[in-house]
Design brief:
The protein has 127 residues and is an all-alpha fold. The protein has a domain of 45 residues. The chain is 94% helix and 0% strand. The longest helix is centred in the last third of the chain and has 80 residues. Keywords: Membrane, Transmembrane, Transmembrane helix. This is DUF948 domain-containing protein.
Length: 127
Amino acid sequence: MSVTISYDLANFIMYTLGAVLIIVAVITLLNVNRFVKRLDKLVEKNEENFNKTANTIPEIAKNVNEVTIGVKQNVDKVGEAIDAVEDSVCDSILNLLEGTEGLFDFISIVGEVIKALLKRITLGKGK
């Protein structure tokens, strides 16, 4: 079974599709035009606000830059303080260890003296 379309019917279909496409294009252009008009009204209405904002942008950028520099300097100072505390703690621990070694040496010497005295006393009692 084959379907045959006449030349006139094919032309009618093509012209109808063309007309529909033209109508859709016109409606789309009208909607775009309406949107552009609304956008233009919005820009006009807020033009003063846009100008104020645009004028404050350099000041905002300057403030952000100053804050960034301040934060960096403070972070550097904190790092230096941490290094100083670390050095101080390490020095204190080393001094404590040296003092402890000295204390142990002193206790050892005192112990030896006591042993020697006890030996003398013990030897003296035995005689």
